[in-house]
Amino acid sequence: MSTSRLDDFEGDIARARDLVGLGQSIGSMTNGLVDSTDLYRAALVQSVASWDRYVHGIVLDRAVDIMLGRLPAGSSSRIGLPLNSVAMLMNASGAAARELAAKSFFAERLATETYQRPDDVAAALAMVGVKAIWSTAFKNAQQAKVALGVIVDRRNKIVHQCDYDPIFPGTVTSLLSSDAIDALGVVSDTVHAIDPYCR
Fold first, then answer.
1. Secondary structure class of 140 (helix, strand, coil)
2. Distance between CA 95 and CA 24 in Å, rounded?
3. 106 neighbors 63 (Cβ within 8 angstroms)
4. What's the N-to-C CA distance of the chain in angstroms?
5. How far apart are CA 131 and CA 127, in angstroms?
6. Facing residues of 164 across strands?
7. What is the pTM of this model?
8. Residue 82 belongs to a domain
9. pLDDT tens for the chain, residues 1 to 199
10. Cβ-Cβ contacts under 8 Å for 143 (sequence gap 6 or more)
11. Which of 4, 78, 139, 155 has the greatest number of CB atoms lying within 10 Å of its CB?
């Protein structure tokens, strides 16, 4: 199932790359008269959303597989379905109805979670049987986690503070197209590194 999740990610990250390209085109067509840096910010935010969606998809797919007995259970962490959902799942008639119910219940439950920060992602993946993802997928796990964490922090600064610089009030923190491209590269490289372990 992770192949379709990787395909979905590729489409999402392509949209982020398109935003960078649009920003570059607008900047060059207007000789810098139009500030296109917000398109770079949107691309960075899109890259983190793409990451979050990818991880959510993997967790959902594997949780359903565990619930239906196709995969062994992961760590002792709990997803926490309400008892009425479990009862409906157990009473569903037929394999297709059970799978649809499991996807529906897990998707609803996971919608309240955010899987962006490296440690949150590791915990979520461990919950569905993918243990020690950072040390497994990367030669230098700490470096990979820091690189992703910097991008998530910048995303949070953009969406929660409009990317204003706290040291120079009223000034937006600079973001070049190369910064956005680098961020998209880190997110994409991270997904490609962990995907083989999430299948």
1. coil
2. 50
3. yes
4. 7
5. 8
6. 172
7. 0.89
8. no
9. 445 899 999 999 999 999 999 999 998 898 878 889 999 999 999 999 999 999 999 999 998 898 888 888 766 666 676 667 777 777 778 888 888 888 887 888 888 889 999 999 999 999 899 999 999 999 999 999 999 999 999 999 999 999 998 888 899 999 999 999 999 999 999 999 999 999 8
10. none
11. 155
